[in-house]
Design brief:
Strand order of the largest sheet: 2-1-5-6-7
Binding site for substrate: 39-45
Number of domains: 1
CATH topology: Cytidine Deaminase, domain 2
GO molecular function, one term: cytidine deaminase activity
CATH superfamily: Cytidine Deaminase, domain 2
GO cellular component, one term: cytosol
Active site: 52
Largest sheet: 5 strands, mixed
Radius of gyration: 14 Å
EC number: 3.5.4.5
CATH architecture: 3-Layer(aba) Sandwich
CATH class: Alpha Beta
Shape: globular
């Protein structure tokens, strides 16, 4: 299964009763395994958790800690970028040059990298003297 297919498939499982805005994400880990996640809303936190965070959580739960590719899809007129929190999570588990594809259901795609999504990201190198 491709990252695109995995993201499209899991998007259908999103729990979005408040916004009706379903997002699916798929990541490929260093081992080549694909992990996916979808957004989940609740009444106390109607904007919910993000699809990218769910995919990363699944990867970590499986014992992996590095991602090598990302695909995110949503029903929107143009590709939707990850929120700030997800950008930081992507930067935590992927290198700056990791390819990220943002897509809409109608087939529009925006290709970028983690570094372009979060320039100047805080990382472990900032704490080398600690």
């Amino acid at each position: 299964m491709s990252l695109k297919d995995a993201a499209l498939s899991v998007r259908e499982n999103a729990y979005a009763p408040y916004s009706n805005f379903k997002v699916g994400a798929a990541i490929r880990s260093l081992s080549g395994q694909i992990y996916s996640g979808c957004n989940v809303e609740n009444v106390a936190y109607p904007e919910g958790t993000c699809a990218e965070a769910g995919a990363i959580a699944a990867m970590v739960a499986a014992g992996e800690q590095e991602l090598t590719e990302v695909y995110v899809v949503a029903s929107s007129p143009q590709p939707v970028p990850p929120c700030g929190g997800c950008r930081q999570k992507l930067a935590e588990f992927g290198k700056r040059d990791v390819k990220v594809v943002l897509a809409s259901l109608d087939g529009a795609e925006l290709k970028t990298t983690i570094g372009d999504l979060l320039p100047g990201a805080f990382d472990a190198s900032h704490m080398e003297d600690v």
